[in-house]
Amino acid sequence: MNTDKRAAARAVVAYTVLILGALLTIAPLVLSAMTAIKTPKQFAGESALATPDPATVDNFRTVLDQGLGRAVAVTALMTVCITCGQLVISIMAAYAFARTRFPGRDVLFWVYLGTMMVPSAVTLVPMYLMFAKLGWLNTFWALVLPFLFGSPYAIFLLRQYFLAIPGEIIDAARVDGATTLDILISVVVPMSRPILATLTVITVVSQWNSFMWPLVAASGAKWQVLTVATANLQTQYNAQWTLIMAATTLAIAPLVLLFVVFQRQVLRSIAVTGLK
Amino acid sequence: MDRTARRTTAEHRQAAVGYTLLLPSLIGVGCFLLLPIAVVLWLSLHSWNLLGPIRFTGWDNWRSVLTDRQFGHSILVTLALTALVVPAQTALGFVVAALLARRGPGGTVLRVVYALPWMCAPVAVGVVWQWIFAPTGGALNAVLGRRVEWLSSPALALPAVATVIIWMNVGYVALFFVAGIRAIPAEILDAGALDGAVGWRRVRWLILPLLRPTMFFVLVTGVLSVFQTFDAVYALTKGGPGHSTDVVAMRMYSEAFDAAHPGRAAVMAVVVFAVMFVITVAQHRYFRNRTSYEY
Q: Is residue B94 in some structural domain?
């Protein structure tokens, strides 16, 4: 009886702490969304914590008209292109490393692994110089090209998975006359759906949010992505916080929605990313 | 035709397939990773202002960066940020995880809420927090009913930046601890309970020691990520006021693109890589020695 009571008390404490923490976690996002639907007049006149009255979508309309709509489209297109390219090319490379033999395979694999240790800031300046030399700065190619051809991390992750596919299944398909391409498309990919979903989530999140490279490679208005546009808001709107919060809400909301829909997949992908 | 000849043909064919599958990624890794790495090393030995002629200057960039007080200051700022962020996010993440790990109603919703900041672009989050910290019209001063210059005073700016990074990472760290705690076999905890390990004692003498690999992992990756921090700092302070939040990634960026000294920035990039390499190797060795516990 006594232990039951103690357990109940402990649960109450645990939930109180957890819920308070959760409120603190979510408060900044809720506050910014709330500010995004306030009229500038209400924002100037009342406390930042006041609830919107009346609620308005004018702020969203304004920022979308002033170039942010284009940034949303560019970011979405970039994310889709990179994610598709990375998945296809990483699958091919991972299969080559896992299931074929060729001279130099293991050395190349170690080279790929080694590049995973290099922080992206290291390659920033040389990449900028390369793209400047080719005259490709401020183009869509500058955003997409460096990440289109697969990533060592994705290749490593998929290779581990492909190694676990039983060889008999692949041999059986080969005996039936399937080519390597057939095997990849109709045997390996369907069997790897969970890891591919996880990889998709990781790639979409990191590309949608990527900032450092787009900032140096495509800072012009034409191919500006959402993160770069967001970083420029302060100078553009000079403390017109209702507009700035509308813009940040637009930058954050799509991924939050994605997260809520695919939360199982996303939470797993966090655990997987951590296993680098 | 003998068997060896046939085998060689099959091997050749397999090798051809392997190379073909690998080729696209090889182009990517070659052009956008290996070549830039080579260029960064080459660049570190040359002087250039992004426009004029490129001159070979040997170790000059190295000497000037390694004795540059500004760069030394950036390293100290980065270390200070690490000292503020990593212990706090690890401790808070552990507390949240210890509470989240017990299965109960609402667990999924809570985990989603805590992981939410991880999904958000650090830049957008930085801009939101810039408003929260704004002296006038900002949420924090509205709550406190005072007028504090959070981001524009040199003493408060770094703790403010640290707060934002901790806020972004706590839920993410907690998820690793939840996974670690759930991986502990129930028999161990039950046996511990019989010996009187309940409540805090259970955490201190059973869970914490068993979580050492997770703990180490979270600490090391935390240090690695703070060493690369750029987005949030750029959005919040751009390194200011008065270089008080000028972390190494920010310094490298301004050296390359504001001061137009790509050669010096290249040296900084190599230094950052060296630090991260040492941390990664230490992590690897630690893990090799004590990954498995004998349950």
A: yes
Amino acid A275: pLDDT: 42
Residue B56 resides in a domain = no
What is the C-alpha to C-alpha distance for residues B185 and B189, in angstroms, rounded to an integer? Answer: 7
| Domain shared by B248 and B212, yes or no | yes
Q: State chain B's mean pLDDT as an integer.
A: 88
Q: Which residues of A touch B143 (CB under 8 A)?
A: 49
Whether residues B88 and B128 share a domain: the answer is: yes
Same domain, B8 and B89: no
Distance from C-alpha of B290 to C-alpha of B280, rounded to nearest angstrom: 16
Residue in chain A closest to B32 (alpha carbons) equals A146
B116 lies within 8 A of chain A by CB: yes
The pTM assigned to this predicted structure is: 0.91
pLDDT beyond 80 at A245:
yes
In a domain, B54, yes or no: no
A18 touches chain B (CB under 8 A): yes
Q: Residue A265 corresponds to which tokens in the numbers above? A: 């997949």
Question: Mutate which of A122, A203, A262 to disrupt the B interface (most B C-beta within 10 Å)?
Answer: A122
Residue B134 and residue B32 share a domain: no
Measured in angstroms, the CA of A261 and the nearest CA of chain B are apart by: 11
Note whether B230 contacts A211, CB cutoff 8 Å.
yes
Residue B50 lies in a domain: no
CB distance B121–A211 less than 8 Å?
Answer: yes
In the predicted structure, residue B179 carries a pLDDT above the cut 90: no
Q: Residue B169's domain spans which residues?
A: 65-288
State the pLDDT at residue A184.
92
Tokens read off for A206: 């990191």
Q: Of B18, B35, B179, which has the smallest distance from its Cβ to A100's Cβ?
A: B18
Question: How many domains does chain B fold into?
Answer: 2
Greater confidence (B103 vs B111) lies with: B111
A window 131-190, beta carbon within 8 A of B: 145-150, 152, 155, 180
Whether the CB of A107 is below 8 Å from some CB of chain B: the reply is: no
Domain A58-273 falls under CATH 1.10.1740.10: no
User: pLDDT tens for residues B149-162?
Assistant: 999 999 999 999 99
Note whether B11 contacts A: Cβ–Cβ < 8 A.
yes
Residue B113: closest C-alpha in chain A: A22
The stretch A248-267 carries a mean pLDDT of 88
User: What's the ipTM?
Assistant: 0.90
Rounded distance between C-alpha atoms, residue B134 and residue A44, angstroms: 13
Q: Chain A residue closest to B235 (CA)?
A: A231
Residue A15: closest CA among chain B residues belongs to which residue? B99
| B35 plus B103 within the same structural domain | no
